[in-house]
Amino acid sequence: MSTLSFHDVRVRYGSHTVLDDVSLEVADGQTVGLVGESGCGKSTLARAAVGLAPLTGGQILLDGRPVPNRGRRPVQMVFQDPYSSLDPRMTVGESLAEAMPERLGRTARQAEITRLLALVHLDAARAADLPVRLSGGQRQRVALARALAARPQVILADEITSALDVSVQGAVLNLIRDMRRDLGLSMLFISHNLAVVRYVADHVAVLHNGQIVEFGPTAQVLGAPRHDYTRHLLAAIPGAVPLKEQT
Amino acid sequence: MRAARVLLRPVGFAGFGLLTLVLLAAAFGPVLWGGRAAAVDTGNLLAGPSAEHWIGTDNLGRDLFARVLVAARLSIVLAVAATAISLVLGILLGAAPMLLGRRLGRLVTSAVNVLVAFPGLLLVLFFAVVFGVGARGAALAVGVAGAPAFARLCHTLMAAVSERDYIAVARIAGVSRIRVLLRHVLPNVAEPLIVNATMAAGGVLLTFAGLSFLGLGVQSPSYDWGKLMQDGLNGIYVHPLAALAPGIAVVLAGLAFNLTGEAFAAVFGLGDLPGGARSLEEPREPVAATPAVPGTVLSVEGLRVTIPGPAGPIRAVRGVTFALSDGEAVGVVGESGSGKSLTALAVAGLIEPPVRVEADHLLVAGEDLMAAGAHRRLGTSLAIVFQDPMTSFNPAHRVGPQLAEVSRFHQRMGRKAALARAVDRLRAVRIREPERRARQYPFEFSGGMRQRAMIGMGLMGDPRLIIADEPTTALDVTVQRQVLELLAEVRRDTGAALLLISHDVSVVTDVCDRVLVMYAGRVVEELPAKDLRTLARHPYTRALVAAVPDMDTDLSRPLAVIPGLPADPVHVPAGCAFAPRCPLADDHCRAVAPALVAGVACHKSTEVPV
Q1: A180, A32 Cβ separation under 8 angstroms
Q2: Domains, chain A, ranges and CATH?
Q3: Three-class DSSP category at B465
Q4: What span, in angstroms and rounded, lies between the C-alpha atoms of A32 and B11?
Q5: Where are the transmembrane segments (chain B) (predicted)?
Q6: Cα gap A9→B518, rounded to integer Å
Q7: Does B484 touch chain A (CB under 8 A)?
Q8: Which residues constitute the domain of residue B78?
Q9: Chain B residue with minimal CA distance to A79?
Q10: Per-residue pLDDT tens digits for A79-136
Q11: Contact with chain B for residue A86, Cβ under 8 A
């Protein structure tokens, strides 16, 4: 695994600035949580790192070298909607095989598929299934396995639990923590849910209107926030502060 | 299975039957009747129908019936070839934005858009002149002229598919553009393309007949149906069958293609729900209507919602009973498929056939919703807030008039008075500059503001009950908080009761007095909201609460998970629906469904350590 760093990244669509000089580092083996409201540019930052959003300025470096945005990316991304991220006409095994970096023989490929499915706690027999036979949580695990199949150096997880039911969300979050422990994954974990980020991330970055307003160790940022906006976000969590009627 | 369904329809059966006949004629016609069609009989020139020559002979005495059958091959081959040319060109042009990149792709798309605007026949004639007279020229002309329409279709279909995340994933994985097109895009647009190509083939057949008829198509000595029609035209007043028979052949073959296409479209498109008309429920004893308890705004007993499905009826809500007192806030939590939203929709009277709603009784604000016309009498005593505020407003109308419509319809207010009330209500839900906002369209509102306006619409009348179905799920936490606070404030000011549906346990505990926990279409536990985290007795409730991380979750331990999968609503087990996932379940649990007694539906509730 390696270090992914964003240097003064700027993304603009027309006159609308989505990201404004964002600098952020996902260090080797670390999980960095990225939080903020919808529309603040969280997803755009991840998409920029894999070449799905054009940079207007700045650089995204992997171990000091620009991330290639053609061919197989050393940075892989997992998307929010597990119903959109798997080709409905390809079996689980085919989807995984497509993402593998080298062409393997039949037996080697089967072994690799079994290994990947085991990593995400899925039965090897699932390889022959079409996505339609899988539940949302199972699909999201396949999506994670596919990201791992490409042998990435960094994984970007964009709201990967927000489309899942709460009981399934727990299983996926446990999986993320297991994988980080066992594989030493570096990960940028994007979520609007602070409790989820608190559970999986070592560091947290708070994005607001395209700018990072606070960055630091999770316990510090969520426990003793320094920026007003972070405090505002924390206060809005249901159950954090009793609801007050507006005056 | 789907192919079988094509044949089961009358349209599909007729289409396939005709198509088989036409294709058989095309395949074997020249072999079987080729000799007869070419045999010159100088003693029988331009004869009329007879026992020997069913539809007569042509100017060389050749049998016309045999010629029509033999012509099937050339006509069909030309039509299929031209359609194939259209299809391939169309796919290439349609995929241009994907293959060539954004800028070049846009150029191609604009060109296609211009070409689509030309009348088809004009293009055919133009290309027919360019490619020259004859069968090959005609096939090329018709094929190329048909390409823009296919290109437009392909472009639209592919644009929809390329938005999907799996395309992005494949690109990130380094799959080349061509391979993405072949492996991911084409298979996912193939169905509608094939359907359209089948239908287009029918049209192309007609175009060919037209071209040959005009003398631009097939030339002697070859002949297709159009050529035969042209030959027969000279004698149309003497023996009309000579011209009509090939015409009938064109019509039949065209019908064959079109009907087959129609049947495919019907099956692959919006399939209807088989079994929709079937009666799903066993007959049940009539129940004497229970009179409404005073002070109760909502009273539901034995509510059942059944959705007809291909694998059998889905019993989404299976006997739900609860009541809301005036001014009370009750939350319904559960995962997707638990039936919580359908319960809310049924209470709001918003479920339409083929989905069936049954209840022993269902009283909302004193009106029996199971009686006819109750919904209208309910008027404005019920307010509803949905999850997606974008789809709950009509995007083509300004917000103010949409709110005003409620008062004009239910309270017979004048236009001006109603609009004034709308502005007043927008102010009440804390929308700034309500006069200006009332004149705006829904898309000019942010998500949170639309949700406020929706609540404002509920406040146009004098609601006694507000039903909110996941009102904050689409909103950010900060906006979510504002909307929840607004709901609390509205309740305080109007004294309305609130039925809040949510998957988020913490939202419900924040807002509600009482919580109903649903699993597989039943209420499994009912308890005060403040006890949800600490005093829950049902194993499912406890697991649900434990599975959600909050800001105090122990970071050193894995999150609690619920093993197994949610109950399949088509095959709900006989006993407790949660038993297959429950650590406490025994044979009794698997055999006998527990009733909701003293707030919990669990045989083992006494064994759960509190």
Answers
A1: no
A2: 4-86+156-236 (3.40.50.300)
A3: strand
A4: 59
A5: 12-33, 74-100, 112-133, 193-216, 236-257
A6: 46
A7: yes
A8: 74-268
A9: B165
A10: 988 888 899 889 999 999 998 887 788 899 999 999 889 888 888 888 998 888 887 7
A11: yes
